[in-house]
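Supplementary Text 2. Reproducibility record for the structural model of the 131-residue chain.

All settings were left at their defaults, and a single model was retained for analysis rather than an ensemble. We include the record here because the model underlies the residue-level annotations in Supplementary Table 4.
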Amino acid sequence: MKMQTVHKMISAIAICSIGFFSAPASAGPDESQKQMVKRVMQAKQKLQQAEAAKGEERHKLMGEHMQMMQENMEKMQAMKPRGGMSMQEHEEWMNQHQQLMQDMMDQMMDEHHMMMGMNCMSKAAGDTHKH
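Retained model, structure tokens:
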């Protein structure tokens, strides 16, 4: 996993969030959001497994998490509020969407911090072998 990929995904989430919050209102919470909540939770569980793992297993799980996050991002970008909803339903839909985006951003930041920690640890281990 490259840091550049993480930065691109973080940028995409930020841009996507701006677009959704400035879009005209027309829906409330729906089945696609319920499915996305499940997908985001599955990705979070994968990240937790990666945090508990070591070495190659950790790298494998982090790669799987990154793939899940990319798929989730594509689905989030395609989500649209359904037509004919009341203002209250639309507000609920937007609140749910905002929460999903925040959950994804939090996971990406956690993964980024894990990667940075692994880089620091591997550099430190490399430094000890040089002496």
